[in-house]
């Protein structure tokens, strides 16, 4: 009797793309707002971006139910102590981006054998106010980079970012600065361009672009229309 | 009051129907440094006296943020208070995780009270030695509760606990009728004056007291030292006009409202110490 395959999957892919770019004193995180399943669109106005702390924002693509659960877990700091709010209570300050990065990694690995189908980019400012971007796989492997993209459009977006930003590898010695030399306005423009291009060829990316910019003044949100087809 | 033969176990009743261990726990609250709370329709102010053991040490933390809409001031065994505020924080976090809305403070105090009650009915436990003034907002407005080690809780318009709290209570009794419509500034000023009453002549400085506020549109936060000192300076200039009132009639001043019809009368001596704490 040949092995039976499951005809039900606990996962689904809701598509979409996320991008994060960091600079000397800012960080830009962007994601499209289209949520799809199969070849259908569920909604054109769904935010994939979640604010985790004062200067730390996460964008996730993949299975949005898992993304939502992950966001709740991080933001709500559920059963296991040392999650975000408990951290804030005990340490009396907001969690820094690098601390959050480790927390997210641990949270993802906790479900190593039934993973969150969530492909994340974490962006924000570190303790010194420098922009930082962390990129993850579904089970928590992460690294600090100058820029990253995840999701259905990442195969189209990443090579373009590599071409424009050419961030040095974090494995190089001596350790080189990962942040991009671009100014904040240029980085935002780059992100808009990148999504406009991705929307042309990736059917799961489009509708609207949500951009979040974190800098010393705080967090600012922008929107831009993308192709709706 | 001390040295009874029925006071070894918390699970031993006295022939007069009292649980002495519980009453002793309430004594511990009275020994702690003062904490006061007062509320208007939209805001609650918590204040406490923060004296360090010596010049070398730091102050003990007596006011804790539990959630954006709830804070607590403690008097008594501060270690017990810390543990209970951690419990409260967890409860708030779990509730808002499940229901995506803030835990109503009325529910939290019941959970706290039930937790305290357990310790009065287990032979291997001891009652918590800390009194909690819980300040919180819910849909019906601003609330101030007092949780006893006995497991009782009461809602108050204004209250004070800890050592020399009677002086503060007297002050609050005289003024509480005006609190409901007080402005933010007036409420904080009244809190500082009440704290001053407990200091018995010592100068009120922002370095020995802590004040926290929570209100509609204002998440719970502890006021920084400068703001507090400014407010102290402002009313010191006006001058203190209050004479010392000689009335220990605590019952007149407090608006006690036990929510679930807790049989407050049944516990005799121990409840009296909660509703109308008078020095015995």
UniProtKB/TrEMBL annotation, chain A:
InterPro entries with a match to the protein in the record: Ntn_hydrolases_N, Proteasome_bsu_CS, Proteasome_sua/b, Proteasome_suB-type
GO biological process: proteolysis involved in protein catabolic process
PROSITE patterns documented for this protein: PROTEASOME_BETA_1 (PS00854), PROTEASOME_BETA_2 (PS51476)
Subcellular location: Cytoplasm; Nucleus
Entry GO terms, CC: cytoplasm; nucleus; proteasome core complex
Main location: cytoplasm
Record's keyword terms, sorted: Cytoplasm, Nucleus, Proteasome
Pfam families noted in UniProt: Proteasome
Highest rank taxon of the organism: Eukaryota
Protein family according to the UniProt entry: Belongs to the peptidase T1B family.
Biological role stated in the UniProt entry: Component of the proteasome, a multicatalytic proteinase complex which is characterized by its ability to cleave peptides with Arg, Phe, Tyr, Leu, and Glu adjacent to the leaving group at neutral or slightly basic pH. The proteasome has an ATP-dependent proteolytic activity. Non-catalytic component of the proteasome, a multicatalytic proteinase complex which is characterized by its ability to cleave peptides with Arg, Phe, Tyr, Leu, and Glu adjacent to the leaving group at neutral or slightly basic pH. The proteasome has an ATP-dependent proteolytic activity.
PANTHER family linked to this entry: METALLOPROTEASE TLDD, PROTEASOME SUBUNIT BETA TYPE-1
Self-association and partners: Component of the 20S core complex of the 26S proteasome. The 26S proteasome is composed of a core protease (CP), known as the 20S proteasome, capped at one or both ends by the 19S regulatory particle (RP/PA700). The 20S proteasome core is composed of 28 subunits that are arranged in four stacked rings, resulting in a barrel-shaped structure. The two end rings are each formed by seven alpha subunits, and the two central rings are each formed by seven beta subunits. The catalytic chamber with the active sites is on the inside of the barrel. Component of the proteasome complex.
The protein's name: Proteasome subunit beta
Provenance organism: Hibiscus syriacus
From TrEMBL, chain B:
Localization terms from the record: Cytoplasm; Nucleus
Entry annotated with the keyword Cytoplasm: yes
Chief place where the protein resides: cytoplasm
Single Gene Ontology BP annotation: ubiquitin-dependent protein catabolic process
Gene3D superfamilies: Glutamine Phosphoribosylpyrophosphate, subunit 1, domain 1
Classification via SMART domains: Proteasome_A_N
Compositional bias ranges of the Low complexity kind: 242-270
Residues covered by the Proteasome alpha-type subunits domain: 6-28
GO-annotated cellular components: cytoplasm; nucleus; proteasome core complex, alpha-subunit complex
Region (Disordered): 242-280
Record has Nucleus as a keyword: yes
Entry keyword set: Cytoplasm, Nucleus, Proteasome
Quaternary structure and interacting proteins, as annotated: Component of the 20S core complex of the 26S proteasome. The 26S proteasome is composed of a core protease (CP), known as the 20S proteasome, capped at one or both ends by the 19S regulatory particle (RP/PA700). The 20S proteasome core is composed of 28 subunits that are arranged in four stacked rings, resulting in a barrel-shaped structure. The two end rings are each formed by seven alpha subunits, and the two central rings are each formed by seven beta subunits. The catalytic chamber with the active sites is on the inside of the barrel. The 20S proteasome core is composed of 28 subunits that are arranged in four stacked rings, resulting in a barrel-shaped structure. The two end rings are each formed by seven alpha subunits, and the two central rings are each formed by seven beta subunits.
Family: Belongs to the peptidase T1A family.
Annotated function: The proteasome is a multicatalytic proteinase complex which is characterized by its ability to cleave peptides with Arg, Phe, Tyr, Leu, and Glu adjacent to the leaving group at neutral or slightly basic pH.
Name of the featured protein: Proteasome subunit alpha type
């Amino acid at each position: 009797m040949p092995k039976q395959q499951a005809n039900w999957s606990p996962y689904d892919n809701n598509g979409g793309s996320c991008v994060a770019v960091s600079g000397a004193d800012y960080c830009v995180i962007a994601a499209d707002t289209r949520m799809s399943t199969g070849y259908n669109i569920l909604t054109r106005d769904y935010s994939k971006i979640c604010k985790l702390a004062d200067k730390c924002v996460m964008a996730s693509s993949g299975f949005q139910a898992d993304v939502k659960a992950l966001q709740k877990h991080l933001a709500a700091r559920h059963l296991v102590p040392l999650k975000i709010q408990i951290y804030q209570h005990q340490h009396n300050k907001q969690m820094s981006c690098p601390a959050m990065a480790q927390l997210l990694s641990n949270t993802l690995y906790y479900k190593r054998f039934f993973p969150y189908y969530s492909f994340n980019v974490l962006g924000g400012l570190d303790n010194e106010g420098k922009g930082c971007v962390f990129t993850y796989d579904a089970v928590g492997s992460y690294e600090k980079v100058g820029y990253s993209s995840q999701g259905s459009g990442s195969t189209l977006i990443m090579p373009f970012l590599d071409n424009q930003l050419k961030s040095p590898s974090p494995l190089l010695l001596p350790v080189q600065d990962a942040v991009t030399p671009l100014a904040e306005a240029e980085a935002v423009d780059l992100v808009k361009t990148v999504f406009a291009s991705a929307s042309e060829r990736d059917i799961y990316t489009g509708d609207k672009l949500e951009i979040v910019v974190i800098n010393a003044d705080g967090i600012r949100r922008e929107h831009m229309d993308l192709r709706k087809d | 009051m001390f040295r009874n033969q029925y006071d070894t176990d918390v699970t031993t009743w006295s022939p007069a129907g009292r649980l002495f261990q519980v009453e002793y726990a309430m004594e511990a609250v009275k020994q702690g440094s003062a904490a006061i709370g007062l509320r208007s329709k939209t805001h609650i102010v918590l204040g406490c006296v923060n004296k360090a053991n010596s010049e070398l040490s730091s102050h003990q933390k007596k006011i804790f943020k539990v959630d954006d809409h709830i804070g607590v001031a403690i008097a008594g065994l501060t270690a017990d208070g810390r543990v209970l505020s951690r419990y409260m924080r967890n409860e708030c976090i779990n509730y808002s995780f499940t229901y995506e809305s803030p835990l109503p403070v009325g529910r939290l105090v019941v959970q706290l009270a039930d937790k305290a009650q357990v310790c009065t009915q287990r032979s291997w436990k001891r009652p918590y030695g800390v009194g909690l003034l819980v300040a919180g907002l819910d849909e019906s407005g601003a609330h101030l509760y007092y949780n006893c080690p006995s497991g009782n809780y009461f809602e108050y318009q204004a209250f004070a606990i800890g050592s020399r709290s009677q002086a503060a209570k007297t002050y609050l009794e005289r003024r509480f009728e005006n609190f409901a419509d007080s402005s933010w500034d007036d409420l904080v000023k009244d809190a500082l004056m009440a704290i001053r009453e407990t200091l018995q002549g010592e100068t009120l400085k922002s370095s020995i007291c802590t004040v926290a506020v929570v209100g509609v549109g204002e998440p719970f936060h502890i006021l920084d030292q400068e703001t507090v000192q400014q407010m102290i300076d402002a009313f010191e200039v006006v001058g203190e006009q209050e004479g010392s009132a000689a009335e220990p009639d605590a019952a007149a001043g407090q608006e006690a409202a036990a929510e679930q019809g807790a049989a407050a009368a049944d516990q005799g001596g121990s409840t009296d110490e909660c509703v109308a704490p008078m020095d015995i």
